[in-house]
Amino acid sequence: MNRNIKILMHTHWDREWYFTKDETKVLLRNHMQEVMSFLEENPDHIYILDGQSIMIDDYLELEPDAESRMRNLIENRQLRVGPWYTQTDLLLVHGESVYRNLYYGIKRAQDFGKPMLVGYAPDTFGHSSQMPQIYSQFGINSTFFWRGFSELKADKSDFTWEGIDGTRIFGGNLSTGYQGAKYLEEDRPQLEARIRKLMAVLDKYSAGTGRLVMNGHDQMPIQSNIIDIVRKLREIYPEDNIEVSDFETYMDTLKGLDLEVVRGELTHSRHSRIHRTIGSTRMDIKLLNSEIEHKLYNSLEPLAVIGSDAGIPYPHGVIENILKTLFGVHAHDSLGGCNSDKVNRDIKQRLMNAREMIDTQIELHLRLLTLAKRDEKNVIVIVNTLPEHRKDEYLEVEMITRSRGFDIIDEAGRKLEFTILKQSEVDAGLIDRQVAARLLDLEVYKSVISLQVDGIDGLSTRYFKVIENGGYNAVERVSENSIKNQWGELFVSDNSLNYRDLRTGQLRRNVLFIENSGDAGDSYDYSPPVPDRILDTTQSGRISAEKVSGKGFEELRVSWTMNVPSDMAGRMNGTDDTLAAFTASFRLYDNDPKVYSKLKHVNNVKDSRYRLVFSTGIETDMAHVDGFLSAHNKPVYMTEELAVWEKEQWAEKPISVETFQSFVHLTEGSRNVYLFTDGLKEYEVLEDRIHLTLFRCFSHLGKRNLVNRPGRPSGIEIETPDNQLTDVGFSFRFAFSFNLNEVNPSRESKKFLSPLIGYQKKEFNRFNINARKELKEPAGHLNMELGKAAVSAVKLTEKTGDRFIRLFNPENTEISVVLPDGSYRASAMEEKLESVGNVVLRPQEIINVIVSN
């Protein structure tokens, strides 16, 4: 047959890896100068700029005078940019980050011309099952990728990809990789030998007459002799049509074909590595990223919506700056942590800078909201950032008072019950430099309180008064090792933490414990040493506990210690010479069936993996977990894949370690167990236990011949001592429950990650600000009847300043949602479509809504 051979000229631009982003910026300037000169000399040629618009900004930052040249080439469709802002990871980031990455990538490309609306993700370590719907909402009807495909999914590399909601787009697996035709040889015999190998693979896997030949590689300069190369290829294959082309033209060769349908995640590792345990590499970086994402999407954006009603300008520029900082570390290598130590330090510093920005903006908004209460000098503002009414919930508030004791009074003059969790005397001059400048010797009390709020409307505020010299309601310490509420009792006995379900009487011994194992892997993959010794706090550790109680809750403060090997040599020779210590708090509220937990640890060993083990009492073949704006079942054991991987010589073993976003739910008959997490995203179910990876530490960026990954090293074999995470402190937050029946875990996890916010108008502050005359108490609210729908985002649109709400249906049945008056369906680019009132969401459907002000 006559083949249509489409050569795509491109570069794959890892912005950082074992080199820094500043190195690649300088290299990019040189690269773009060559690319633009070539395209200007050859106006019939096309060049793909790796699907990411940040390359526009990185180049113009160093070469601003070249903007008109670049604009002309993009407008002429010679230079293809977008749709991504950066080439993001597609499993570990927040689903909202995926939406915003595409939004800003397309928006930036539109500044110069028409974006490339192709879901190009060549080197990402797997693809979420929600991506077809997300792509489709941006007008993207195709994706091209390298990693994640196998013949268990389809026989051909051209297929129809059906997402979890039923949305279908074209899927194109790059069967010879994005680098298959890199640096094509000028020598005719060498070129012919090379291209025949490529064509043998493409002939096997291509579904139609088209053959996609990817001429590019990591930071590869443009192949400036491509015209001569194409001429020689036409001589080699005179019967074929050969041209430098693009993805869209390749898809034209598939029109009318009945392509195979592929469903679900794309995470198979037959032809390329997926690195299934990269979700626990450099957990200090991953937890910091998740903290910023959750603060941005669950706190700052909806808080800023409320603030706009109070006369506070919406901080679009601040949010965009924070987002683009996040996008810069969301690439598969960057967020994966599979970089040199120097790069990881830079990534962490950028995230710390972004956290400072978001923390400052949140505090500024809260402070301005208290200043809107002009008639009160000492007041607390309570904020609900969800668009639905909430009742009987607890929050923690930091207080600065001159008096040790104080009372809190609600709007009706009622004294509220609260508990002082901790309190200390501090020098006011260390808080407010004006105090120090006046040489005042003033001690104040810094307290953290737990306060119950009986009810608050959605997207609204309440104001409480603070009266000093009132009561002093501190936590009470009790010499007991047990706490309980109406649902259950958590207690320490026989050197283990246990939970008794008071509704059923069932006792779960060792309900939670810490596991330590060796790690002989690298930054891409956990690898068990051979042999390994697995230790845990139930067998070789010690546990102690102390009970504290307050208004409406009881808390068990637990200390776990165990002796573990200090490094790999110790593990091999049986020397457990280092004391590992974990401290935890477990809180039970009177009105909540969940156990709320915080766990802290400072790492002092090397070559290890720590996991939190949750004994559920449920054995099942499937785990119900959340993904990008979705919830679905994942098998706990990859039966089909593990049956064939050795025979078919997969690139790596398909181990049954999975990723999720914020919850794991196991069910058996009428019994349910839920685990909610804040930033921990890697789990494995073994028998009736959920193993949640806390962190792992190791010695190298890449190693060869790992147990589950034979052959060459991934990355390069350089030592990365920072990856041992020595002296790094960790703080983990999670919750679990055996008594959440008939609930929607997606909504529960959103509440868990979106607590009520409280802020006191303080007498002493680091910075002085004025109470603007336009400030007013926000009077609005939004109480949506969501049913089983979950909220993903609440923000204001950039163009019109209207309220933008993104909802999704995490159920496998249709649900109905009543939208506020003045609602419109919207595109993912935040543009109004049609007016809408009641909507029926199909299973796993995402809907974008604009509510006109």
Provide a descriptive summary of the structure in words.
The protein has 853 residues and is of the alpha+beta class. It folds into four domains: 4-271, Glycoside hydrolase 38, N terminal domain (7-stranded beta/alpha barrel), CATH 3.20.110; 379-475 and 756-760, Immunoglobulin-like (Sandwich), CATH 2.60.40; 485-753, Golgi alpha-mannosidase II, domain 4 (Beta-galactosidase, Chain A, domain 5), CATH 2.70.98; 784-853, Immunoglobulin-like, CATH 2.60.40. The chain contains 16 helices and 43 strands. Helix 1 (21-41) packs across helix 2, helix 6 crosses helix 7 and helix 10 runs antiparallel to helix 12 (341-371). The longest helix is centred in the middle third of the chain and has 31 residues, at 341-371. The chain is globular. The chain starts with a strand and ends with a strand. The model has no long low-confidence stretch (mean pLDDT 96). Keywords: Glycosidase, Hydrolase, Metal-binding.
Question: How would you sum up this structure in a few lines?
Answer:
It comes from Youngiibacter fragilis 232.1. The radius of gyration is 28 Å and the shape is globular. The strands form nine sheets. It has a ten-stranded antiparallel sheet with strand order 17-23-24-25-26-35-32-31-28-29, with helices on one face.
Write the layout of secondary structure elements.
Elements: E1 4-9, H1 21-41, E2 47-48, H2 54-62, H3 67-75, E3 79-80, H4 95-110, E4 119-121, H5 131-137, E5 142-145, E6 158-162, E7 168-173, H6 188-205, E8 210-215, H7 226-236, E9 241-244, H8 247-252, E10 261-263, H9 283-309, H10 316-328, H11 332-336, H12 341-371, E11 379-384, E12 390-401, E13 406-409, E14 418-427, H13 433-437, E15 443-456, E16 460-468, E17 476-478, E18 482-484, E19 488-493, E20 496-501, E21 507-518, E22 535-536, E23 541-550, E24 553-564, H14 568-573, E25 578-589, E26 595-602, E27 608-615, E28 622-627, E29 630-635, H15 639-644, E30 658-659, E31 663-668, E32 671-677, E33 682-686, E34 689-697, E35 729-737, H16 745-753, E36 757-760, E37 790-796, E38 803-808, E39 815-818, E40 823-826, E41 832-835, E42 838-841, E43 846-851
Parallel strand pairs: 1-8, 1-9, 2-3, 4-5, 5-7, 6-10
Antiparallel strand pairs: 6-7, 11-16, 11-36, 12-15, 13-16, 14-15, 17-23, 18-19, 19-20, 20-21, 21-22, 21-27, 23-24, 24-25, 25-26, 26-35, 27-34, 28-29, 28-31, 30-33, 31-32, 32-35, 33-34, 37-38, 38-43, 39-42, 40-41, 40-43
Helix pairs in contact: 1-2, 4-10, 6-7, 9-12, 10-12
